Amino acid sequence: MFPIVEAEFIAPDVKRFVIEAPRIARKRRAGQFVIVRVHPHGERIPLTIADGDPRRGVITLIVQGIGKTTKLMNLLEAGESILDLVGPLGRASEVENFGTAVVIGGGVGAAIAYPTAKALREAGNHVISILGGRSRELVILEPEIRAISDEVLVTTDDGSYGRKGLVIDPLKEMIALGRPIDYVLAIGPVRMMQAVAETTRPHHIRTVVSLNSLMVDGTGMCGGCRIITNDGARFACVDGPEFDAHTVNFEILVQRNRAYADREAEELREFQEHTEEMANEVHHWCRLESACPEVGPRG
Amino acid sequence: MSLNKIPPKERTKIPRVHMPEQPAEFRRANFEEVNQGLTILGATTEAIRCLECAKPHCIDGCPVNVNIREFVRLVTEGDYLAAAAKIREDNVLPAITGRVCPQETQCEACCVLGKKHEPLGIGYLERFVADYEREHGVFGIPERAPLTGRKIAIVGSGPAGLSAAGDLVRKGHEVTVFEALHEIGGVLLYGIPQFRLPKEIVEHEVNVLRQMGVDFQTNVVIGKTVTIDELMTEEGYHAVLIATGAGLPKFLEVPGEHYNGVYSANEFLTRVNLMKAYDPSYDEPVFDCRGHDIAVVGGGNTAMDAVRTACRLGARTSYLIYRRSETEMPARLEEVKHAKEEGIQFLCLTNPVEFCGNDKGWLQAVRCIRMELGEPDASGRRSPIPIPGSEFDLPIQMAVIALGTGANPLVQSTTPDLQTNRKGYIAADAETLATSKRGVFAAGDIVTGSATVILAMAAGRKAAASIDQYLQTLSN
Ligand SMILES: Cc1cc2nc3c(=O)[nH]c(=O)nc-3n(C[C@H](O)[C@H](O)[C@H](O)COP(=O)(O)OP(=O)(O)OC[C@H]3O[C@@H](n4cnc5c(N)ncnc54)[C@H](O)[C@@H]3O)c2cc1C
Ligand SMILES: Cc1cc2nc3c(=O)[nH]c(=O)nc-3n(C[C@H](O)[C@H](O)[C@H](O)COP(=O)(O)OP(=O)(O)OC[C@H]3O[C@@H](n4cnc5c(N)ncnc54)[C@H](O)[C@@H]3O)c2cc1C
Ligand code: SF4
Ligand code: SF4
Ligand code: FES
């Protein structure tokens, strides 16, 4: 069991967790993720390590509640624990001094992009961050990202904050104005990452995306996370999650991520109808004192 | 009259006992174990068939030389616990091997009875005594030698890791098993299905080890969470055994393998066995086979397990596509027989060349080509050759690729001074199982490539013995 030491909502349905996982805290690098299982009948889901403190032995996860598992997880509070948590998985982001780096985070993608943006800044890049959300309250981590960026641009779909439009718009403008850009990192909904890839492709700007394929083990054992690139199939959990955006087949990624859409919708409905019972159950499992003795705090 | 006074001629007249099974039409829709196990009467009758040969060839056929003649004799005497103890001298997982060993190519292949009659049901008897021992709960926890103060890390909790853990903890060493997944057991748990090897049996073995003092740490991926070097320096382990299995899935590498509905056997079986997708009270999704036509590609145990699993998940038609003929199938005979009884359609001498899908990305059909057998290849098996122009389309909505597995490079790639062979398996000395790195040993499928439970178990024990010797050479 992995004790939760802090848990707070930072936007509607978006919760930030600080979790005790000393081994992972010591090892993790920007761009890596963990796989989490919340209750004994639960599935394993991947979540990016948004931050970590090896001294305190803790890592930070930022979770957007979009389906049953993430919504269940977001019911958990400090003092409870995560049943299973394994990592750090995946390859660390490639970080070097590229020159000017544009980091684009759409929605919860900002949380995934944050550690890499921070590392890019530390490596000497001029970091321009573009944050986007559907509306004001869905723009997350703005203060944190401001602290590690040279420039920050914010867009909202409805214009309730920053400029009205999509995260892709400021990028297009910069390119049109001829601003030199050496590196782009785009993380968010697949369609957003695809649009960024198409925008930078004609200009041969090195562009990296972090792909969110469906995963089971996260160690290269099942092949379920495979994505199709120009060089053939790759496993997102071990060869990624970051890939050269210009080689990725996004259509296939969208289709593969929809593989269980019916079942997911059914589970979400079930969750919405029985939230209270499910909450009781998950609290039962995640309270420290009910933990099985053989699964002590690890990792 | 004492049972063993029956003259050999009379014994050979007794027909081989039948394993009680769930009827095929019933079991093809549930995940309960197919084989129900022998009764005491059945076991006794079978045991009496043994001729108690002066030169028991059966023992030579067993990779770990279980003293078959002796344990079978103890069964005729009704001393099942002594029989179990006799097996355990050489084989610490009898309830498992009794169920999954390919007996027809090992112990039973060498039984003299098989020359003129049916060979002795050695696997059935092994399973019988092991189940008896477990169910009667009298199995004492083996004694542990005084603590030595030596710490050993075992990476991977399959049969190789588990058997090594048992031997080493008994010698008084401190043993920690690290497992990447959230449960212990390796392929025994996530690969081999419930209907062939109930999970309670694996759990029982793990609990015995736990009571003996083995420390199990799940959710630790060696190479990621912590490296072998860190285990040996920062965490103070004196020796490490790598028993990570051969977990890397192989795909056909034909067009269309990305369609939804195409799985590796590892993914399909993990979703169903480890994550229990067959049980609606679990959240894990898997393709809804009900009313669909499905195909599994391959001819080994994994392919049989996958196709019979899909059948149990409600598939309308379940095909098994295999590129050689049935005689070349590497699966256990019993699994092939069971699969056929359950209505699995065998398409032998057939090979997929492409998967076809619809515009939503879902699998719709597999294009296959017929094959014929040519000259024997290097392995002595006749290699299949495609027959030009024989392509045909088979409409299916789910496919599982079960072509075997390779070495997962996670540990090797993060342990610089560990030598591997051309295929990425860890190079280990045949006798000591020592690797190129001092204090690091390797055993099981990660050394040999996919093999069998009994060979992995034997290798685990061999490694345990040489680790114990190695520890004695350390000065402090
Ligand atoms: C490497 C990696 C890192 C990730 N990091 C984070 C993170 O830091 N924070 C975070 O909130 N989420 C992250 N995700 C996404 C997260 O894993 C999914 O949101 C989660 O698995 C959904 O589970 P669920 O049961 O709640 O929803 P489901 O019921 O599985 O899905 C609900 C809806 O979301 C869609 N969906 C399902 N899985 C994914 C997915 N993997 N990506 C995108 N959409 C999906 C479904 O199509 C469905 O419409 C990451 C994914 C990957 C692969
Ligand atoms: C579906 C299927 C059916 C089979 N049927 C039979 C049968 O009927 N009879 C038979 O004899 N054999 C059968 N086999 C083969 C047999 O199961 C294997 O040969 C045997 O399990 C190998 O044992 P092992 O201990 O070497 O590895 P495994 O059982 O593969 O265990 C390795 C363990 O190590 C863990 N691991 C891997 N990497 C790491 C890491 N980096 N850090 C931590 N942990 C790690 C894995 O998660 C796994 O739990 C079958 C195999 C499969 C897949
Ligand atoms: S371990 Fe396997 S081969 Fe040996 S006697 Fe038992 S069933 Fe036969
Ligand atoms: S070879 Fe057959 S008959 Fe002879 S001892 Fe072995 S099992 Fe018995
Ligand atoms: S999640 Fe199983 S191989 Fe990537």
Shape of chain B: globular
Number of domains of chain A: 2
Strand order of the largest sheet of chain A: 6-1-2-5-4-3-7
* Number of extended strands of chain B: 16
Q: What's the CATH topology label of the largest domain in chain B?
A: FAD/NAD(P)-binding domain
CATH architectural type of the largest domain in chain A: 3-Layer(aba) Sandwich
Radius of gyration of chain A using CA atoms only: 19 Å
- Please list the strands of the largest sheet of chain B in the order they lie side by side: 3-2-1-4-16
Q: Note the total helix count of chain B.
A: 19
Strand content of chain A: 25-35%
Q: How much of the sequence of chain B is in beta strands?
A: 15-25%
Task: Note poorly predicted spans of chain A.
Answer: 289-299
Q: Major sheet of chain A, described briefly?
A: 7 strands, antiparallel
- Nearest-integer average pLDDT of chain B: 94
How is the biggest beta sheet of chain B arranged?
5 strands, parallel
CATH superfamily assignment of the largest domain in chain B? FAD/NAD(P)-binding domain
Helix content of chain A: 25-40%
CATH class (first level) name of the largest domain in chain A? Alpha Beta
Which structural traits does this protein have?
heterodimer; A: 299 residues; alpha/beta; Elongation Factor Tu (Ef-tu), domain 3; 2 domains; 10 helices; globular; disordered C terminus; B: alpha/beta; FAD/NAD(P)-binding domain; 3 domains; 5-stranded parallel sheet; binds iron/sulfur cluster; binds FE2/S2 (inorganic) cluster
Q: Outline of this structure?
A:
The complex is a heterodimer of chains A (299) and B (476). With 299 residues, chain A is α/β, with parallel strands linked by helices. Chain A has helices spanning 22-27, 68-73, 109-122, 142-147, 168-176, 190-200, 236-239, 250-257, 261-273, 275-286, and strands at 2-11, 14-20, 33-37, 44-53, 58-64, 81-82, 84-89, 100-106, 126-133, 151-156, 163-164, 183-187, 207-210, 226-229, 232-235, 242-244.
